[in-house]
Amino acid sequence: MDSFSFKRPHLAIAYCDSLAGKGIAHAASGLFLAGPRRVGKSTFLKENLIPEINQRDWISIYVDLWANKNADPGHLVIEAIKRAIATHTPLTTKLTQATKQIKIMGSIVLDFANPGLPDNMSLADALRLLNEITHKPLVLLVDEAQHALTTPDGQNTMFAIKSARDQLNRSDQTSSLMLVLTGSNRDKLTQLVIKKDQPFFGSEITPFPLLGKDYTDAFTEWVNRNLATHNQFTKDSMWTAFKLVGHRPEVLRQIVGRTAISGAAHCFTELLEKDANIWQSRLWEDFENDFNALSLLHQVILTELVNKGRTWSPFSDESLQYYKKVTEQSEITTSTVQAAIQQLRERGFIWQSSRGSYALEDDSFQEWFKLHAMQCPINPLGQ
Question: Cα dihedral sign for 216, 62, 197, 25?
Answer without folding.
Answer: negative
